[in-house]
Amino acid sequence: MKLGFKLIAEGYGPTEIVRQAQEAERAGFDFVEVSDHYHPWLYSQQHSGHVWSMLGAMAQATERIELATGVTCPIIRQHPAIVAQAAATVGVLSGGRFTLGLGAGERLNEHVTGVGWPSVTVRHEMLREAIQIIRQLWEGGYQSYEGKYLTIDDARVFDLPEESPRMVIASGGAKASSLAAQLGDGLFVTEPKPELVDAYRDAGGDGPTYAEVPLSYAGSEDEAAESAHRLFRFGQLGWKVMSELPNPINFEAAASWVTVDAVREAMGCGPDIERHVEVTQQFIDAGCDHLALINAGPDMDAFFAFFADDLGPRLRELEA
Length: 320
Description:
By secondary structure, this protein is an alpha/beta fold. It has helices at residues 14-27, 51-61, 80-93, 107-110, 120-138, 174-183, 194-202, 221-232, 239-242, 248-254, 260-266, 273-285, 300-315, and strands at 2-7, 31-34, 66-69, 98-102, 143-146, 151-155, 166-170, 186-189, 209-216, 268-269, 290-295. Helix content is 44%, strand content 17%.
């Protein structure tokens, strides 16, 4: 099992995100993953730096820790040819420490180019084509591809790492898990649902299984819950809502019913190690082995110290 840290690019500016990657390395995390957004979810976040710029800086500012996107959508806002080039460059700059997380995206970020937001069926077909394009470009040489939705014409990525980055595919259902098994090197989930990992394994997937574990550390449970509600109440809406709303104003309206107690129940809140262990164990029991901890608490440096001294050693004792 590997323990990672989720860099919340919607909640902090680019310079702070790079600093947090350095602190995560010092605290003993195995990897960091960072969201690839154009907009934040809520008014209380107010950031959304360019992921590839931040990853390039992280690659130079760290030495050991693995880097990942969690996750990139390569079908509308970013063409897969550009994603292939960007990911290869980060792979080179990081000395092979980069993992490319891919998914079918959210309207929140993809609608900004004005080309429309396809149905989930079409998005998955586009994602399949995008993965094929990225794989093809990573083979080297000039490449062309003509799909139903996506095309490349005589394109070549010149700077490639010695080994292609691992490609991990996000899933919220059985079809996406099957796609991850067919074309990816691993699975990425955000909910502790064993059926997602089971569908991946049943379809032949044998790679790592990534998950995001929602926690909020503070000196008291109430302080942690209030902070989590301020920054992360949108997560209680569920993926079928989260993928479809276009802007923070819509998430503010949709999440207006979410209470502090609802967030407290869903996340590990406060200084109690065993409560955080309980939440993390759900993801281990679901079959996940690469766990990215999200801290929605008010003091990130206090969380890093808590992880290094107490939480990290305790979590590394857990077993499936």
